[in-house]
Amino acid sequence: MQRSKPHDRPAVFLDRDGTLIEERGFLDDPGGVEILPTVVDALRLLHRRGFATVVVSNQSGVARGYFDDEAVRAVNGEIARRLANDGVAIDAWYWCSHYDEDCACRKPAPGMIRRAVDEHGLTLDGGAVVGDRGTDVALGHAVGIPGILLPGPYPYEGPEPDFRAETLLEAAEWLALRQAQGDIGVASKRSDSG
Ligand SMILES: [Mg+2]
Ligand SMILES: [Zn+2]
After folding, report:
1. Which one of 44, 45, 120, 190 is most buried, by most CB atoms within 10 A?
2. Is 183 a known active-site residue?
3. Closest ligand to Cα 133
4. 98 lies in a domain?
5. Which burial class, exposed, middle or buried, applies to 179 when counting CB atoms under 10 A from its CB (0-12, 13-18, 19+)?
6. Is 193 within a domain?
7. Are strands 163-164 and 122-131 parallel, antiparallel or unpaired?
8. For the CA of 130, the nearest ligand
9. What is the residue-averaged pLDDT of the chain?
10. C-alpha 142 – ligand 2 centre gap (Å)
């Protein structure tokens, strides 16, 4: 594990479909955007705790010819607009447009996270990936951070999640607690081993 610089910001990497918004299956219509319950509260909590929030989304509908990158941008823009109405924001948006090719970014490949870390001065320390599929959990493990699993419509295939949360808020609370315990450990050198 490489040491992070002190000014590096911790980050949470969020899946989009089924995590921030209702899973629609190849959504290309901003009108189909429905923000999931607790997402706004979760983002507030994460920002309050100093986490950058970064969306990492597989959008193979582009490579499959169902829609183009502009459609992905339009849906992302609609999500951002809805969240802004509630006073919260996503810090960065990444997606993989590929499908049947050897790209470095299709989850669980770590390309999107690597890019986000470089482009936004992030640290992986204390962070996690949150999503509703095995590829999200595997993505976390690919870069050495926890994978938090949310309930999803698909049968689960993937590595054992580090935490199963019912909602994004529950995932955010788990991260906040972990962060607080880390702080206590550093500040007072806890002697209890649980
Ligand atoms: Mg998903
Ligand atoms: Zn890709």
Report:
1. 45
2. no
3. 1
4. yes
5. middle
6. no
7. unpaired
8. 1
9. 92
10. 15
DSSP secondary structure letters along 62-129: TTTTSS-HHHHHHHHHHHHHHHHHTT---SEEEEE--SSS--S-STTSSHHHHHHHHHHTEEEEEEEE
Tell me, yes or no, whether 152 lies in a domain.
yes
Cα dihedral 96, 99, 103, 104, rounded to 10, equals 50
pLDDT in tens, 138-189: 999 999 999 999 999 889 999 999 999 999 999 999 999 999 998 654 444 3
Q: Would residue 125 show up in a list of annotated catalytic residues for this protein?
A: no
Range of the domain at 63: 9-188
Question: Tens digits of per-residue pLDDT, 8-46?
Answer: 999 999 999 999 999 999 999 999 999 999 999 999 999
Tell me how many domains the chain contains.
Answer: 1
Which residues line ion ligand 1, judged by CB < 5 Å? 15, 17-18, 132
Which CATH number fits the domain that encloses residue 75?
A: 3.40.50.1000
**pLDDT higher than 90, residue 3:** no
Q: Distance from the CA of 93 to the center of ligand 1, in angstroms? A: 14
- The reply to whether 4 falls in a domain is no
For a pLDDT cut of 70, what percent of the chain falls above it?
Answer: 90
pTM of the model: 0.91
Ligand number nearest CA of 24 is 1
